[in-house]
Amino acid sequence: MKIIFTHFFLIFLLLIFSTSISSANDLSDNCGSEISLQEKSKKLWTVNLTGIGIITAWGATKWDYFTRSPRSKSEGWFENNTKSGGADKLGHLYTSYLITHGLSNLFESWCFNKNNAATYGALSSLAIVGYMEIGDSFSDFGLSKEDMIANTAGIIYGYFSYKNPKLADTLDLRWEYKPNSETLEDFVTDYENSKFLLALKLNGFDFARSNFLKHVEFHAGYYTRGFSGINATKERNLFIGISLNLTDLFRRHSYDKTATLLKYYQIPDSSMTSSRDINNH
Fold this sequence. Notes:
By secondary structure, the protein is an alpha/beta fold. The chain has one domain. Helices cover 46% and strands 17% of the residues. A six-stranded mixed sheet has the order 7-3-4-5-6-8. A two-stranded parallel ribbon has the order 1-2. α1 runs antiparallel to α8, α3 packs across α5 and α7 packs antiparallel against α8. The longest helix has 26 residues. The mean pLDDT is 86.
């Protein structure tokens, strides 16, 4: 599945529809009252049918959907003999997480309460990415059980992190991307220049909120290199890092859109990291 471009598009939507943080049953600041059940149903159908329609049109023209009988296959996980060393699976997880947050934000901006927005965002995400995997089954890609598991994991974390402000304040799932001229033509599947990471933000803990530690976050992640070239040396890298919490810094100074961007996207080379290639150990 071609998903790197989707990352940028979904982050863009999050910036547009991001709402102020509200408690479980409260509404966003731009809502006077919650919309009716009938209005909710109409918007849910609109979102899901639009998403499925776009995937159908794009899949039929770009990914050869519905050109063969359905099939499934096992692609493996993070083994060295897989297509991307597992980076594509983290891409699926991250994309499903983004879709869940993006749709939850959209529903909350439409005056769903936060609990309902999170629930319907997760269910709509499951419907849309599930349909995409079904479309893959009717193409040369084939339905991958590993992709479905990764998608589901991303949706589950997206649901709980959107619904629980404490979790959202503590742990981010991010994508770091640094393109170069050699891979720019294959932008949509450029795992060679991608990293996926979890960021543990100390300002989410009471002990750090009143001292300098509130500006610090720790990273742990994974990336692969050399899987796109026949003669390239393959790397499967685990890494840890430390960085300034730029998300909190920008939010404290009322740059909310920038803070939202940095919640999902890690600026390349903005942290001190140490990595280990597990192919060499």
